Amino acid sequence: MSTTLIEVRPAKAADAAAVASTHDEAWRAAYQGLIPGPELEKLINRRGPGWWDSAIRKGSRVSVLCFGDKVAGYANYGRNRARSLQFEGEIYELYLRPEFQGLGFGRRLFASAKRDLVQSGLKSMVIWALSDNEGATEFYRALGGRMVARSSERFGAKSLDKVAFAWTN
């Protein structure tokens, strides 16, 4: 019998390539068919290993969920960027590689990011998701998020609706 360690920990610069690969796989799975192809490719290509290395080295809050020695998912988070919303923290991104979805790992990553925000004094938080990304919207609802705002974002010629889910402690 073997045991595989599952851990959530702060990302290290050495994780940059694995986070970039996770970003690539997760975004293709989540957004193919929603975000126009050329726009999706631009968004993915902007976030290569160099981008993640720089973000991690500059102190951005990036956590990784590791399954054994493989990065299975990541979250990055910090202060809320939307001044119009009265929430202190924000999870900017939370993604898992497709083969690790539906196993409870997203809940673990979410709980870890939320705990880190609360421990740093950010007692409420928000997450944005595209309205048409049913996997994400259902996930955030199941975690107790309440919808607090709507907006839209342009991807080339296409405008997509997005919703904000919030939690307060």
TrEMBL record:
InterPro entries in the cross-refs: Acyl_CoA_acyltransferase, Bact_Acetyltransf, GNAT_dom
Annotated PROSITE patterns: GNAT
Domain N-acetyltransferase: 6-169
GO MF entry, a single one: acyltransferase activity, transferring groups other than amino-acyl groups
Pfam families attached to this UniProt entry: Acetyltransf_1
UniProt xrefs under CDD domains: NAT_SF
Keyword Transferase: yes
Keywords, comma-separated and alphabetical: Acyltransferase, Transferase
Parts forming coiled coils: none
Keyword Acyltransferase: yes
PANTHER family from the UniProt entry: AMINOALKYLPHOSPHONATE N-ACETYLTRANSFERASE-RELATED-RELATED
Listed name of the protein: GCN5 family acetyltransferase
Organism of origin: Tardiphaga robiniae
